[in-house]
Write a structure and sequence with these properties.
With 415 residues, the chain is of the alpha+beta class. Helices cover 53% and strands 18% of the residues. It is built from 13 helices and ten strands.
Amino acid sequence: MSSTAETLFEYMRKILYPANENDHQLDLENLEDEYEMLGKGLIYLAQCVSETRSFAKSLAKGDLSVMMPPVDNELAAPLKNLQASLKHLTWQSQQVAKGDYKQRVDFMGDFADAFNTMVEQLADRQKKLEDEISLSRKHAQAMEQSNLLLSKLVQNVPGQIFVISAVDYEVLLANDSARLILSQEPDYIAKLMKLLPKVESLVNSHYHELQFTKASLEHYLTINTYQIEWDDENAIALVINDVSVERRQLKDLEDCAYKDALTGVYNRYFGMLTLDEWLVNNRQFALIFIDLDNLKYVNDRFGHGDGDEYIKRVAKHLQSYSPETVVCRLGGDEYMLLAPHQGFGDACDRMESIQYYIQNDEYLRDKDYVYSISIGIVSVEPDNNMVSSEILSLADERMYEHKRSKKMRSRISKV
């Protein structure tokens, strides 16, 4: 073997088994002329191997932000694909943490099976949470009824029992719980009677619920009233239970089950419940199906942080439709609005205004992209015969017609 061949063979060995970075040095001037082209090729191979090895080491350490090797390095192509897949998997995991249980992984073998099983278990946990809400409601109702019965029979019950004059609201009788609240707030009855209806209607309406704010917290009272005679005087018996803790807990559970974690608007589950309920009750409303344009482009080009901001800001603008409109995020880049007492024309006009504010959102001032939505509207009348899935399918078709028409106008304007 010639000395040049031995030099090239030794250089190739160092490419595969480098002791240090200096092992990738080869002096072409020392090679015979017929080996010069081979030497150049080996230098290029050494550079590709070095870039690929460095890239692989960073990925092995979990550094997904490492810069990719140049596009002409074909050796690193599979690792580039792996980096993109791992980035997407990271984003999917973040979405699952926010409550999006539709995410699935279809690669990476056993890991995909484990990931998908975990997401399914989280979805099951969501269902159990919804069942817990239903049980909590029944439990709260049963507790209120039980407390009322015990209040009639036992003096020392947790609920407050007052007997007051129907004329001047003087306290004629108070149980232990009632006396405790009076010691803390002497004007308690006076404040309470201002919140309740007039005495004439109060004595004939036996059950009331009061909600008020105190010390920056919402408080809830259930009050049962009874018209009685006390020492030959017209009186009113009040049985009061403070259910603030239970109601706050129930509200927290409802927020978990019915609200979208990212945007704070209602989720798909609540939206479909509402849609079915309105159809059963023959309500007149407009269903508006909304799809965000180019969300994938924003995610891929500018990152999922900008993509999430896009989703949240559109949700905020949609909430301005009207106070009684139900705004739901169906998932990903799709929303559904249920606008009561709205016809097709009314909904078109309102959404045109909202589209304007979305496109001119202040967040876009220094951005290289725009916000835009595609819309499909279906006006539902009281004599409607379509089921919810048919209405959604029709709205989806109209949304895609809108999206296609915008793309066509864009092409024409460029010609």
